[in-house]
Amino acid sequence: MSTANTAATTNTTTTTAAESTMMATTNSITENVVHEEGLHTKLDRIFSTPSAPGVAYSLEIAAKDDFDVGLLERLVPQPVFCSLPWISDDNLRYSDDFLRAPTMQLSAQLRSAHYTVVNHVSCYNITEHQVDGLLASGVQNLFVVRGDTVQEEQKFQHSASLVHYLRKRQQESTLPPRLTIGVGGYPYGHHQSSSQAQELAYLREKIDHGVDFLLTQTLYDAGSFFRCRDRCRQAGITIPIIPGIYLPHSYRHLQVMLRLTRITLTPEVDAAFAAHADDPPEQFEAFVLDHFAGVLRELLEPNRTSSADAIKLVHFFSFNKFPLIQKMLQKLDDFFLQ
Fold first, then answer.
1. pTM for the structure as a whole
2. Comparing C-alpha atoms, which of 231, 253, 257 is closest to residue 244?
3. Model confidence over 144-187: pLDDT tens digits?
4. What's the distance, CA 283 to chain centroid?
5. Peptide bond before residue 243 is cis, with ω within 30 degrees of 0
6. Is residue 300 within 8 Å of residue 311, measured between CB atoms?
7. Alpha helices in the chain (DSSP H)
8. Is residue 53 packed enough to be buried (19+ CB in 10 Å), middle (13-18) or exposed (0-12)?
9. Hey, is 277 helix, strand or coil?
């Protein structure tokens, strides 16, 4: 992981073209949507009153055939925002018109149902022109990731350079009225970091370019989150840090996720899950709910006695398993706002 390159200056022609595209576009993701409270306003309200009772949550949703907006709408309480992962091959295939990409189609559906949407964007092989096109489509909230694959010839080698470019474009033009940007954090460490100090330096570089919130990778124990947050605070990182929770719906799916995210569980947590590897689905689900209810209680209990750095927002990686999310919210209804 080398130091992120500074984004090259965009020429006037590109800027004008992107702005003209937005002005001429009548089929943007914001069209025909009733005035929506900005995500930055929601986050400011949540985190500026840490002593206020209750905790909010957000959801990551997959643009897959099993998505059911009806199940989403039945969740109680409702999420503060819904995030949509970036699928590079799919999205870049529609780089001439991002609105045709499956994730952007789902964005439009969610916004029409009055959900605040955070679109992921990956550095992988995306060009400045394509980023301008994405902004011109009307997105207002972005979660910036580097991506698992990096090509030597791609423009943005690290997420810091893409965050820098986004903020630069925002200052140069009036494309989005207010762009809210989030980035990821790694409580268990990034597999390519040589040390915690190096990892924090890269994280600080991203945030210094203008990041609004930090969302962690999937958590399996509370202690890893608290240690990560302490390191960030000691490094001068003051933005909200949101814990990310994934509720595996099978032991096999858990193993797939661990390989994908390159996380090594602590021996205690690994043994706890392994003990339920052969459980029938209902029994495994019961264990998962109990385990992560315990993790969340450990994360949220400090809110009762202190407002200092209180956790006011939890993010669930849903995989569209909304009934499972509802069961967790019900188990913790003394915390989550109704």
1. 0.86
2. 257
3. 987 666 667 777 878 899 999 999 988 887 655 678 999 999 99
4. 30
5. no
6. yes
7. 12-24, 39-48, 69-73, 88-93, 102-112, 128-136, 159-172, 196-208, 222-234, 251-261, 267-274, 281-300, 322-331
8. exposed
9. coil
